[in-house]
Design goal:
The protein folds into 2 domains: about 5-60, no CATH class; about 75-170, no CATH class. The strands form 5 sheets. It has a 4-stranded mixed β-sheet. The chain has a two-stranded antiparallel ribbon with strand order 1-2. The longest helix has 9 residues, at about 60-70. Helices cover about 10% and strands about 40% of the residues. The radius of gyration is 20 Å and the shape is globular. A hairpin with a 2-residue loop joins strand 1 and strand 2 (about 15-20). It is mainly beta. It starts with 6 loop residues before the first strand and ends with a strand.
């Protein structure tokens, strides 16, 4: 069964966590002496320790969180931070340094009007299994044959109308 992820369920304290590749979530009130790891550095780094496989998921970025909890990779390909608002935490996906955009051509009409024509995506990699790309709605609309492109949905705004995050990703 090559390419399959091993899913393990662990009971840590009062919380049961299911995670791929043997990664376990650190219980928030775990005593230091209950950690089977001999170096305890794993609890500070936010990374899975090879000795105990415990990870503090609150210290993970969005890409690492998606890999640890869902066994998939999610990359933010927009120029904006994306905050996924889960019921028990906020998962942040850092903005891309070179976002995926659509080619544009501006046609000048009469002053002060112009028309922007959108073309093919620039920087869009080939689709790969288990990898999802956060893109703009414009990119997703142009690439209708791609099942790996996702967009923030269920947008949440503050009292001034500013976007603070999303509750899910639309496929």
């Amino acid at each position: 069964m090559t390419g399959m992820k091993m899913i393990s369920t662990y009971n840590i304290g009062h919380r049961i966590i299911t995670a791929p590749d043997g990664i376990r979530e650190k219980e928030n009130n775990m005593e230091e002496n209950t950690n089977p790891c001999t170096n305890h550095a794993c609890l500070d780094s936010g990374l899975a320790c090879p000795e105990c496989s415990i990870v503090d998921i609150d210290k993970l970025d969005g890409e690492s969180f998606a890999q640890a909890m869902w066994g998939i990779k999610i990359y933010n390909c927009t120029p904006h931070e994306v905050a996924l608002l889960l019921p028990d935490r906020v998962v942040r996906f850092v903005p891309a340094t070179v976002p995926i955009r659509l080619a544009q051509k501006v046609v000048h009409l009469s002053t002060p009007f112009s028309l922007t024509e959108f073309g093919e995506p620039i920087g869009l990699p080939k689709q790969q299994p288990g990898i999802f790309l956060i893109v703009s709605q414009l990119v997703k609309n142009i690439c209708v044959d791609r099942t790996d492109l996702i967009v923030p949905t269920e947008i949440v705004r503050d009292e001034k109308g500013n976007i603070i995050g999303c509750k899910s990703f639309g496929k």
